[in-house]
Here is the input.
Amino acid sequence: MAELTYREAVRGALREEMLRDQRVILMGESITGYGGSYAVTKGLVEEFGPKRVMETPIAEAGIVGFAVGAAMGGLRPVAELMTVNFALLALDQIVNSAAKFHYMFGGQWSVPLVVRTVSGFGQLGPTHSQTFEGWFASVPGLKVVMPATPADAKGLLLAAIRDPDPVIFIEHSLLYSTKGQVPDDDGLEVPIGRAAVVREGDDITLVSYSRMLLQALHAAEVLEREDGVSCEVIDLRTLRPLDYPTMVRSVGRTHRLVVCGEDWRTGGFGASLLSELQDRSFDDLDAPIARVAMRDIPLPYSRRLEQVLIPGSQQIVDAVRRMS
Amino acid sequence: MSEIELVSGPDAPGGELMAGVASVLGAPAAERRRSLRQLPQGLALRLYTAMARLRAFDERAVILQRQGTIGTYPPYYGEEAVQAASVLALDDRDWLFPTYRQNAVATLRGCPPESPLLLWRGNPAGWYDVHRYRTAPICVPVATNYPHAVGAAWGSRLRGESTVALAFGGDGSTSPGDFHEACNLAAVVVAPVIFLVTNNQWAISTPVQQQTKVTRLADKATAYGIPGVRVDSFDVFACYEAVAAAAARGRAGLGPTLIEAVGYRLGPHGTADEPSLYRDPERARLWAGMEPLGRAGAAMVDAGLTTLEALEEIRESAVAEMLLAGDQLEAVPVPELEEIADRVHLSTPWTLSPDHLREPSYPRAG
Ligand SMILES: Cc1ncc(C[n+]2csc(CCOP(=O)(O)OP(=O)(O)O)c2C)c(N)n1
Ligand SMILES: [Mg+2]
Here is the structure.
């Protein structure tokens, strides 16, 4: 085990897999000089050279389209989009090309592509503070991964690069400096499609992912201490394919569920998760499933208003208290 | 990199990159004096004043960011000439489509400087009246403002007005599809629009050589069948002439023009950036002498248009104005949630109405 930041864990996965597999290439805007918008790829061009760590023009659609072609042609491209907000410019390539080619052409093409991008906020304003994982997770043909811890960031990225299908890998800007223990074993994957029970509990299940995992863990501590409520906390880690059995098992014991996300309430990822669970777990539930999400308002630039709107541990605590 | 290479590098001042760019201040002294003396009465001083006010705004904004009064801010030190020249060469009825880099340009049309500062403070009071100042809200998603300008210019034409629209952008903004689509559209429909691309040679840490293989961005115009002109971005007089000529073309019904204002990004990309991590600080030092305010002032004094003292007075009053603007910010109240909910739409749907937000059935968890 070594203590690494989330940023170092992502970089470590890229580096290890580039050493192991010559087919892995990186591409993106300002990824050589500054190391991308969050300095994740810093130092990699010095080690692997500009043919494998490619500085690109500002051209999101082009970057992803290029990566789709490179993947079909036998490479293992990892394309970086500075933030998920700019992935909007590449949506057609992601949805109509990457996600479709295996299906539409009788399995003759596969697109082993990873799109690495970043969600997050922090006085970035309405166009730069969005979370679109629900959109990607609604597209058949894509896999969507959103790690919360350094260990998962590394293990899941390794799995994503080796995966034969297109994977959208969404990091969180507010997690980059968080630290955690990461196994030393070279190349240890965390399987895509498996959730983790991060904290065991008996009274209520909190389902979360990415930054909201930390918020859920904090809420669980507060509820244990102040209310004597024991929360089981699940980290989804992968949003598509989604590990329903782990959630169903947990709800079978706790009989209550809160679904926690950062995206908009209407059409957000938690909405479809919730509809599926009320179907699969209805008989186990003692209360309606509660949901923590962002109000249907674009996140403003103001620090204070941002804090009012961003869902966090307090909203989770409130939701649990209203249920009990 | 050796000193010699730096000084003689093709992309240094006086190098190949700047060869042939339109320049008033770069001409031999006698010619330069003659050009300045032939300017319309008072124009040089108006250009200087506009640049001084933009400079003072920018310097104040950087201080306010350091003090925590405003959030991350994109400084434009060194790009005042392009902005001041654009506003003054256009009519006040013409449309401007700025990016983050030209965030204060509406202040040259009477907009109080508090407005853009409040925007960076994240206060909805920060938005100026777009129609009054004919200046669109800044666009941060790169290149998205180019097609807007084409549409606005087309709208003016349909209404039989003779206004033009000018969209700003950077070297990096010539890569996304929006730029190409806008140039092509404008050319095809003959829209009275000006694409003003400031080639400061950097897009965050990406050098222009990795952005495009075209040395002269203006050459891209050929592909759209429109004129592409090159001008010294640090020369307010040359920029003025270029924008005025492009505007005249647009008004005459001849369609769009691409202007490449060539220069160098003298400062960081934004207040959170540290350029020494990816570029040689020596290079910025080479360009430091091209800084447009001092350069214009020296030439104006040399041509006998004004005195050092008069220029100092202009700068001081600009600094005082921006100091005052900065001092007003903290007093502006931060709005409540209901107020911003009410701004999501013009006709607020009942689901975002204050009554509904207060209703017990409203999901209070976030
Ligand atoms: C579509 C899109 N992709 C990426 C970004 C991130 N980004 C912000 S500014 C910038 C560089 C722009 O460079 P340039 O066009 O040269 O303008 P300058 O900053 O030099 O004025 C980038 C890549 C963005 N805002 N929008
Ligand atoms: Mg630039």
